[in-house]
Amino acid sequence: MNGDSSKKLLVVDDSKFWRSLITDLLKDSFKIYVAESGIDGLKIATKVKPDIVITDYNMPDLNGIFLSIVLRKYQAFENVGIFILTSSDDKINDFWAKKSGANGFFSKSIFNSKDELDKFVNEIKVKKFFSVEDYVKSEISSEKAYEIIEERLKEEIYEKEILNLLKYIRDEEYLMERLNGLFGSLFSYESFLALVLSESEARIYSFNSHVSRNHAKALLLSYFEKPTIPKSWHFFGDFDDNSLKKLKNFKKYLVKYDNKEHALLLFENVNYEFDKVINFVGKSLGIVFSTINNFKEYFVASQYDSLTGLYNKKVLMNKIEEYIDKYEEDTVLAIFDIDNFKSINDTYGHVVGDNVLKEIANIIRSITKGNGICARYGGEEFVILFTDSESAIEIVSKIYSKIRKNNWPSLLNDNRIVTVSCGIARYRNGLRITEFINKADELLYKAKKDGKDRYYVSEEVGEII
């Protein structure tokens, strides 16, 4: 120990030459302590509680990065200034240097320049580096040091594996299967449930739970602090709606990122490794599920009409092309237009007009039920794609029945009713997509001209109705 300064500085280097040189150069500015190795540095640090540690990077027992990792693990050294020295031959990894918790790293050549050395000394004297005397009563053993390093290495590996799942971002279901497999390799559990929650969709995944969808939904949602209300719910995995099983012995983890809740993970009958693993990967899980939900929202925005939730025109045009390629002349297109919609907007306002659009969209969606592709074509126009004439006419007929029976007075707050006109056309080889749509549009125009509230069908589909 040398010097009279109130700040204590620990020099850790396996080279006697460098220990002596650094001591001579800094002894007038700090109380100097020296250690001959990384492990020796830990022992002395726990005894003297230095405010600043200058350590060599390349040492045989414990290098400077690992020494920094171990020291930062203890509250006593959270605010200590740690600086790693490198020789001209050392190639330090920037990632690890930053991850280690070191405040900086620099070449030993700094000691060859008085100006650079003075600048460095002034900087570390001005900054409020300090240790806390009340913590770390006992010496940090080499075994404990290596245990901390091993845990840190595991943490880095786990984080990397979790973040690596983002390459499957376009297939969320497969990504969740991979996540289940990864968790299964890190700790044991009987079943795994996950609720991934965004504004557009809630997705619940079950891996070996065999519980009902209602139980899973209620249980998972109950652990959100401020749950988003999604527009739709989707379930994936081995649910059993006849099951009376109720999950009781489980551990849960609420995934957050930037103070926003993104997912709830629930594991049944987990072993003791769960808490440690989750502590390691919590931040990475936040990044992954935040990215998953952002991708979902961007995807939905690019695919669906924001008001009605139906496919948008861009997707519709692609779907028409796909249907023609796959079903050829079995492809049938129905185009709907709300009658006198401008008058509805002018009379009741655009808020009511939007509600009418959503109501028509909901009717179309509920009647079609996966038997066709539903889209908002633009404005007050909607399109349904079918794969055969018979189902097209049957579904359109049911849509008309539902629209005519709908309680429009409650929505419009008077006795006015809402009607639609429709044209239905069948594809014929050689037609361009625009020509195919125009066939249905011409029939729609005729339905409008002939009194509205009716649908006309091309001769290729069936009778005119």
Automatic annotation (TrEMBL):
Domain Response regulatory, first and last residues per copy: 8-123
GO biological process, alphabetically ordered: cell adhesion involved in single-species biofilm formation; negative regulation of bacterial-type flagellum-dependent cell motility; phosphorelay signal transduction system
SUPFAM superfamilies: CheY-like, Nucleotide cyclase
SMART domains in alphabetical order: GGDEF, REC
NCBIfam families the UniProt entry points to: GGDEF (TIGR00254)
Keyword DNA-binding part of the UniProt annotation: no
The protein's name: Response regulator receiver modulated diguanylate cyclase
Gene3D superfamilies, A to Z: 3.30.70.270, 3.40.50.2300
Keywords assigned: Phosphoprotein
Molecular-function GO terms, alphabetical: diguanylate cyclase activity
Segments forming domain GGDEF: 329-460
PANTHER family in the record: DIGUANYLATE CYCLASE DGCM-RELATED (PTHR45138:SF9), REGULATORY COMPONENTS OF SENSORY TRANSDUCTION SYSTEM (PTHR45138)
Signal sequence residues: none
